Amino acid sequence: MENIDVTVLRALRDWRQAGHGAILVTVVRTWGSSPRPVGSIMALRADGAVTGSVSGGCIEDDMIARYTQPGVADALPHAGPPQFAKYGVTADEAHRFGLPCGGTLELLIEFDPDAASLAALVDRLDAGQLVQRSVRLADGGVALTPAQAPAELVLDAQQLVNTFGPEYRMLIIGAGQMSEYLATMALFCGFAVTVCDPREEYRSGFAVPGARLLATMPDDTVAAFAPDARSCVVALTHDPKLDDLALLQALETPAFYIGAIGSRRNNQARRQRMIEHLGQTGESLARLRGPVGIYIGSKTPPEIAVSIMAEVLAVKNGVALPPGVDVAHVKDSQGLAGPGSACLAD
User: Fold this and answer.
1) What's the pLDDT at 346?
2) What whole-number distance in Å separates Cα of residue 9 and Cα of residue 35?
3) What is the dihedral of CA 222, 228, 234, 239, to 10 degrees?
4) Higher pLDDT, 200 or 128
5) What is the longest distance spanned by two Cα atoms in the chain?
6) What pLDDT shows up at residue 159?
7) What φ, ψ does residue 276 adopt, rounded to 5°?
8) What pLDDT score was predicted for residue 344?
9) Please, are residues 118 and 5 in contact by the beta-carbon 8 Å criterion?
10) Cα→Cα distances 281→138, 192, 243, 271, 297, Å
């Protein structure tokens, strides 16, 4: 499943290239609780087709009613200055639009965004670039500039600047059953997923539509994958011959998450092997996570995959996880012995 921003922008580009009237809506400010964060976008075609979201659905319904009714759509401006709209200012409005108590959000609405500019933006995103899209409030003019790092939306008296990035990517080493569950969850969370496994007996049973499956050796795959700051690498084979060198290769990249499944004992043994035989130190292995996942008492492959995906998303979103959800910490503090090396949490 594609990154939601790219999905919205791609659909809007197609609509505009086909000559359809459409608006691009961006959440620019929120007060109190808000169903969608600042920077969220949606696109609405003149006939009522919609992609993306700025709320739980009620505001989308209101905008469809406002901007697609016969006679209303014809009166809308074509290009020109964008307009602001605010929802949830009063308690009655918050209730009407399904906003949390006290929640208010402000939207910026662009009318008939330029098709050529949208095409250029999508092309850059498809090429893996990070792009700032600046919208002049005076006339709706758009400028695209390269960005060096992800950034929060910026709104001032002159312009709106929203940074769009390529898809987050996940590389899974191993094509076993747990990899199928994790790949499926990652796809639904907007990651582009690649799975590598040189073992034909595992690849032959792997079936996750949308995930790319490779037969190359994991360390070679990591090198070709070239993880960046929007990438994560998760090793799920339990086989040191496949996992260890790939993990070391990943540690030389800016990947935001690098980890391996296995017991506490197996993960400690992996670190010891890397230090004794592969020239590593405690410092060089500081970014290596294991056992991966958060502690939710998981035992089955789908539950373990949920715990791994939760940890990946927490790291991606900059959430500092407390010790109480760290698998090794919980197991150590409770004096628990796990069921075996095939389990996430022993």
Assistant:
1) 40
2) 21
3) 20
4) 200
5) 75
6) 97
7) -75, -35
8) 43
9) no
10) 56, 32, 18, 9, 31
CA distance linking residue 33 with residue 188, whole number of Å: 25
Region for 23 from its dihedrals, namely left if φ exceeds 0, alpha if ψ lies in -120 to 50, beta otherwise? beta
Cα-based torsion angle of the residue sequence 198, 202, 207, 212 in order, rounded to the nearest 10 degrees: -10
Average pLDDT over residues 58-78: 73
Flag whether pLDDT at 43 surpasses 80: yes
The more confident residue out of 67 and 217 is 217
The size of the chain, in residues, is 346
Q: Is residue 230's pLDDT more than 90?
A: no
Q: Can you tell me which residue has the tokens 């899974």?
A: 172
Q: How far apart are CA 308 and CA 168, in angstroms?
A: 16
Residue type, 76: L
Q: Element (H or E) spanning 186, and its range?
A: helix 177-188
Residues 6+ apart with CB under 8 A from 252: none
* Interatomic CA distance for residues 131 and 122, integer angstroms: 10
In the structure, what pLDDT confidence band is assigned to residue 89 with cuts at 50, 70 and 90? low
Mean pLDDT of 220-236: 94
Q: What is the DSSP letter of 231?
A: E
> How far apart (Å, rounded) are the C-alpha atoms in residues 144 and 132?
6
| Mean pLDDT, rounded, for 271-298 | 88
pTM above threshold 0.85: no
What lies within 8 Å, CB to CB, of 283 at 6+ separation is none
Under 8 Å between Cβ of 328 and 268: no
Tell me the residue ranges of DSSP E strands in the chain: 22-31, 41-45, 50-52, 83-87, 104-111, 131-136, 142-146, 154-155, 159-164, 169-173, 192-196, 212-214, 231-235, 257-260, 288-289
In whole angstroms, what is the distance from residue 20 CA to residue 12 CA?
Answer: 9
The highest-level CATH class for domain 169-334 is alpha beta
Query: Mapped to the 3 state alphabet, what secondary structure does 208-223 carry?
Result: CCCCEEECCCHHHHHH
For the chain, which residues make up each domain, given as ranges? Answer: 4-121, 169-334
C-alpha span between 12 and 83 (Å, rounded): 18
**Segment among 179-188, 287-296, 337-346 with least mean pLDDT:** 337-346
Q: Which two tokens stand for residue 139?
A: 């006339």
CA distance 35 to 98: 9
